[in-house]
C-alpha cells in the first residue's frame, strides 16, 4: 500500500471514529480531539534499533505519541518487535510504523 493510500485510509478511519464518538462526547471534547489530531507532526521521526525488551520500546513509542510524532521505525537485527498493547495503550493505531529487517548487517 502506498503512503498516500495509507494516509487517506487513516483520515477516513479518523473521521469514522469521530462520527461514532459524537454520540458519546460533548462538542467541546470533539473539537479538542480534532485540534490534537491536527497538531501531529512528521518533522521528527523515532527510530529504535534491535529492541530486546519490548515493554521499554512500547513505552518510548507511547511517549512519542504524546508528543504527536507520527512516524516510527524499528530496525530489527536479532530481535523482532511486537507492539505490546498493555504498554502502548492503543497509541499504535495512530502511527505510521515501519520495520526494517537486517540480516548480517544488510537490509
Automatic annotation (TrEMBL):
- The answer to whether keyword RNA-binding applies is yes
Recorded GO terms, molecular function?
A: RNA methyltransferase activity; tRNA binding
InterPro entries in the record, alphabetically? Alpha/beta_knot_MTases, SpoU_MeTrfase, TrmH, tRNA_m1G_MTases_N
SUPFAM superfamilies reported for this sequence: alpha/beta knot
The tRNA/rRNA methyltransferase SpoU type domain is annotated at 44-93
Entry's transmembrane regions: none
Q: What Pfam families does the database record attribute to this sequence?
A: SpoU_methylase (PF00588)
Is the keyword DNA-binding assigned to this protein?
no
Q: Which UniProt keywords apply?
A: Methyltransferase, RNA-binding, S-adenosyl-L-methionine, Transferase, tRNA processing, tRNA-binding
Could you tell me the Gene Ontology terms of the biological process aspect for this record?
A: tRNA guanine ribose methylation
Please identify the protein, giving its name as recorded.
tRNA/rRNA methyltransferase SpoU
Amino acid at each position: 500500500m502506498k503512503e498516500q493510500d495509507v494516509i487517506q485510509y487513516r483520515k477516513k478511519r479518523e473521521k469514522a471514529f469521530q462520527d461514532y464518538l459524537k454520540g458519546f462526547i460533548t462538542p467541546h471534547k470533539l473539537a479538542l480531539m480534532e485540534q490534537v489530531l491536527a497538531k501531529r507532526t512528521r518533522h521528527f521521526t523515532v527510530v529504535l534499533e534491535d529492541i530486546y525488551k519490548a515493554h521499554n520500546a512500547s513505552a518510548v513509542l507511547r511517549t512519542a505519541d504524546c508528543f504527536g510524532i507520527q512516524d516510527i521505525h524499528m530496525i530489527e537485527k536479532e530481535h523482532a518487535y511486537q507492539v505490546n498493547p498493555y504498554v502502548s495503550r492503543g497509541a499504535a493505531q495512530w502511527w505510521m510504523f515501519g520495520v526494517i529487517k537486517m540480516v548480517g548487517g544488510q537490509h
